[in-house]
Write a structure and sequence with these properties.
By secondary structure, the chain is of the alpha/beta class. It contains 27 helices and 39 strands. The strands form six sheets. It has an eight-stranded mixed sheet with strand order 1-2-3-4-5-6-8-7, with helices on both faces. Helix 6 packs across helix 11, helix 11 (411-420) runs parallel beside helix 12 and helix 22 packs across helix 23. The longest helix is centred in the N-terminal third of the chain and has 23 residues, at 191-213. It is flat.
Length: 943
């Protein structure tokens, strides 16, 4: 951080260039501009660099920096000369600089658009991806300053630095002369450079989470001297869970002669521990946390789980305390889960870490769970822990993270980890808020293509501890965008678990066709009705009667699974009375054996008051550990389950048996199945997402020039009608001219210019786009009709200056629609479509897609709204030209995607006729683009 506030050179200190980044090994570093105050840091940094690295940088032995060198490398104008440093603990670990050059490589100023770039990385930090991160950031800075191309001269033996450049994904030109490799490359982002950047981001962020979830050693700081308390409880949970690594108890109040606490080595300070500490669980009052963080940072601790409360959830003072905590931890290269966290759990056999307030280690399984709220985390773990109580067929947990205030590690980071985690098949997330929806949507789309992602999303009201970017989009719109990214969006914790259990142990259905069979006609009919309500295609239920045996169920299920007209099967079961009725274990085995013979189709059971069957189907699925699950010497959980929690005895299935989820109500089973059907359809469509068409008549450079000229007038503006028509026209979007008509004579002259028939419209704000109020007169065939209409409008609504009347040529009759695009600060660029009019507004009947939109997206956008039948010949009307409408949507998407300065576009109305789509009104708003976006360099969020 710069220590002086005076301007340096030609520009003020560019604070927006500061960023925290995650490195390849999961550690963090701070990137910031180098200033005049960094002279001592630069000299100290250079002293730590090996002679070989200095030789590679300066092409000659260069043991120390001269005073002139130090001045040159710390004095920048932040335009033509820029230097950035990567720091850990306030000290430099790497530097990069560029110098703008002109023809022949001489120093230059704008408009020269080429710069020479050079790096130096401390040997101890080479191989951590520091240079790659610096290259991303220095390239972004250079683009901001009008530089478009980098050159670099590298010695052939400096293969590491050559690899940094060649692996970056930019299009390069390489030459060799005078014993030096010369590289030249444009620094505009390309598809390949973005792919490289995001792959590095994924690996680094996943590694940073992996270091928190699978540490080789853990210190619990704040362990009480007496039993009880948060620290002592967490220590017991880690120990009793069978943690495979080294465990330490820390409390500065421990007596000097205290060797152990509950069989765990006791220390007064982390620095006293002889050996590395990978993870520190912090359970001390908030006022003592800064000292603890400093001790951990100096000892080389890699990450923190901060259970302590008293941060942003407590008010403004706590919010500032939280920001200081993040800054302090990142300065030491550490990541934080929390503060105010519930903790983390990893059930992997080689880890078995329960660094949480959960008193028992969950049963190992294939479900990864993330919850921001500790209370919800408890509810999720409890729901999976219980075998009874309504939901069975439980699969256990692979990893669990409760992030609390998520000041640092967020759901995005954990998604990066789960994406490639071989122990996780299904991801369940409870998100009270989404700090970066744009990034979350991108990561969710990629994750959902590989494994199901089920999310309960908060209503948009952020808890006090969560600082998030403001969004102007309605909650329902954000939810719709998440569904388009493949997220299985549910409303309750119950639905979250219901869907997760089905997806964890059953294949995805190939389609919506559902077979229903069981021993209750009424329950079968209820299931059938729920299938219809969820948009599924159920066959008529097969009633096996209440006297059905286990063999009857087996035979019927086998037949239904073998039937090619069924994609899934729902089995309904009620208690049967009589000696011939099947027992729970017998019926469960019959269903499992039939399902095992057809592994490609999902099977669900709806049961009514059949506790034994539910447990048999769940296959001993309690997440509480069995004796075989515990590590040798593990005495068990911190306490036995209370009577209300203790699950009944289950019937163990054969080894490798297929688990079948069972539900206590038809609506819950069918809802979970419907979500699986929709997700399966999304997965199939995601294999061919479509393409973004190219249009030869688009003048991208012309629009860029026009936008530059318009923005020169102000920071943000809604441009005039003429400018709007010109700008849209360069993208092939034609807007019908509307001429002002301040007097009847002016209206008549405008009509003669446009040609009859014409329309006369009032464009005052209270009348614009409100044909229902009578402010529009259509099909005016001649001047007499026009003058009469003008008089009528004046009589009804007031003077012409109040009406703002315009004359416009008549468009062919059709369906009035609205097309909008907006840049949301949180979600990014969004394209919206709906029909015009009060009915669509009242019903909120609008469809949305993230920009850039593909041809398949545009087709779906038109067909998603509930009023879409009006476009396709509803009740005998003439179908309209939807291909022309889809092309219009694609052109608007291209405009906004190509030019981030276009922050809002509204086309209203767009009359879609049987032939063609006519834009009758348009507004465009411009604003300077954000300095950094999701296409910019990797950076950690700062809340």
């Amino acid at each position: 951080m710069r220590t002086s506030a005076e301007p340096q050179g030609r520009y003020e200190y560019p604070a927006h260039w500061e960023a925290d980044v995650v490195l390849r090994d999961g550690g963090t570093a701070r990137i910031r501009p180098i200033t005049v105050d960094d002279a001592d840091r630069l000299v100290h940094f250079y002293e730590q660099v090996s002679d070989e690295s200095k030789y590679y940088r300066f092409f000659a032995p260069y043991p120390r920096l001269s005073a002139k060198d130090v001045h040159r490398f710390t004095h920048h104008d932040f335009v033509d000369r820029v230097g950035l440093a990567a720091t850990v603990g306030g000290e430099f670990i790497a530097t990069v600089r560029y110098d703008r050059i002109g023809a022949g490589g001489t120093p230059a100023s704008a408009p020269a658009d080429e710069a020479e770039v050079a790096f130096l990385v401390q040997d101890a930090h080479q191989g951590r991806g520091v240079a790659s991160a610096l290259l991303e950031h220095i390239a972004a800075v250079a683009r901001e300053r009008g530089i478009r191309r980098f050159t670099a001269e590298v010695l052939p033996a400096n293969t590491k630095m050559i690899k940094v450049f060649t692996d970056a994904g930019y299009t390069q030109k390489r030459s060799f002369e005078d014993g030096v490799v010369r590289l030249e490359f444009d620094i505009e982002p390309t598809d390949r450079s973005l792919a490289v950047q995001r792959a590095r981001e994924q690996r680094a962020e996943a590694r940073s989470v992996q270091r928190l979830l699978a540490p080789g050693s853990v210190a619990v700081i704040g362990v009480g001297r007496a039993p009880g308390g948060v620290g002592r409880s967490v220590l017991a949970n880690i120990r009793d869970g069978g943690y495979a690594g080294r465990l330490y108890a820390v409390n500065k109040a421990f007596p000097a002669d205290l060797a152990e606490v509950d069989g765990v080595g006791a220390y007064q300070c982390v620095r006293d521990i002889d050996g590395p500490v990978d993870l520190a669980v912090v359970a001390v009052p908030a006022e003592y946390v800064p000292a603890v963080v400093a001790e951990c940072g100096e000892h080389g601790v890699q990450g923190l789980v901060v259970l302590s409360a008293g941060y942003a959830e407590s008010g403004p003072e706590g919010k500032e305390r939280q920001r200081a905590l993040v800054r302090q931890a990142r300065a030491y290269g550490m990541r934080i889960i929390g503060p105010n966290a519930f903790g983390v759990i990893n059930t992997a056999a080689g880890v078995r870490l329960n660094a949480s307030l959960a008193p028992e280690m969950p049963r190992p399984g294939r479900i990864g769970m993330f919850a921001q709220s500790g209370a919800i985390g408890i509810a999720l773990l409890s729901r999976l822990h219980r075998r009874g109580g309504g939901v069975t067929g439980v699969s256990g947990v692979s990893t669990f993270v409760s992030a609390g205030n998520r000041a640092d590690v967020s759901g995005n980071d954990v998604l990066q980890y789960w994406y490639e985690d071989p122990d996780t098949d299904v991801v369940l997330m409870y998100l009270e808020t989404i700090g970066n929806p744009r990034k979350f949507t991108r990561l969710a789309r990629r994750t959902a293509a590989a494994k199901p992602l089920v999310v309960v999303q908060g209503t948009g009201t952020a808890p006090q501890g969560h600082a998030v970017r403001a969004t102007r989009l309605p909650h329902a719109t954000v939810s719709a965008l998440l569904r388009q990214a493949g997220v299985i969006r549910v409303d309750t914790i119950t639905e979250l678990v219901d869907a997760g259990l089905l997806l964890a142990r059953q294949p995805l259905p190939a389609g919506p066709r559902v077979a229903i069979l069981g021993n209750s006609e009424s329950l079968g009919v209820l299931t059938y009705d729920r299938c219809l309500a969820e948009g599924l295609r159920p066959a008529r239920p097969l009633d096996l009667t209440t006297g059905a045996s286990a063999e009857d169920f087996h035979r019927a299920l086998s037949a239904a699974l073998a039937d090619d007209t069924n994609d899934s099967v729902v089995v309904t079961a009620i208690p049967a009375i009589g000696e011939a009725s099947p027992g729970d274990a017998e019926l469960a085995e019959a269903l499992r054996s039939a399902a095992a013979a057809a592994p490609g189709k999902p099977v669900l059971v709806v049961h009514v008051e059949l506790g034994g069957l539910a447990q048999a189907l769940s296959a001993a699925a309690s997440t509480a550990p069995t004796a075989a699950d515990r590590a040798p010497g593990d005495p068990g959980g911190a306490r036995p389950p209370r009577p209300a929690e203790r699950p009944p005895t289950a019937v163990s299935p054969p080894e490798g048996a297929r688990l079948i989820p069972a539900y206590p109500a038809a609506e819950r089973a069918v809802r979970a199945l419907a979500e699986a059907v929709r997700y399966g359809q999304w997965r199939r469509e995601a294999m061919d997402p479509g393409r973004v068409p190219e249009y030869e008549d688009i003048d991208e450079k012309g629009v860029a020039r026009l936008i530059g000229e318009l923005l020169a007038r102000g920071e943000g503006l809604t441009i005039s009608e003429a400018e709007t028509c010109e700008l849209l026209g360069k993208y092939g979007i034609r807007v019908r001219r509307a001429l002002p008509a301040p007097t009847p004579d002016a209206a008549a002259e405008a009509a003669r210019d446009l040609g009859y028939p014409v329309a006369l419209k009032a464009t005052a704000p209270h009348l614009r786009h409100r044909a229902d109020l009578g402010g529009v007169r259509l099909d005016l065939a001649d001047e007499d009709q026009l003058r009469r209409a003008y008089a009528e409008l004046s009589e009804l609504f007031g003077k012409p200056e109040e009406l703002r009347p315009v004359v416009q040529g008549m468009a062919p009759r059709g369906v009035d629609t609205v097309v909008r695009a907006v840049i949301d600060p949180a979600a990014g660029a969004v394209l919206s479509f709906g029909l015009a009019g009060a009915v669509s507004q009242l019903l909120d009947d609008t469809a949305h897609r993230l920009i850039p939109v593909t041809d398949r997206d545009a087709t779906a956008l038109v067909r998603t709204i509930r009023t879409a039948p009006l476009l396709f010949g509803w009740r005998g009307s003439t179908p309209v030209d939807t291909p022309a409408l889809e092309e219009l949507l694609l052109r608007v998407s291209r405009l906004v995607d190509d030019h981030p300065e276009v922050v809002a576009v509204t086309l209203e109305p767009v009359v879609v006729a049987p032939r063609g789509a006519n834009v009758l009104g348009a507004t465009v708003r411009l604003a300077p683009p954000p300095a950094r976006d999701d296409h910019g360099p990797r950076t950690m969020p700062v809340y």
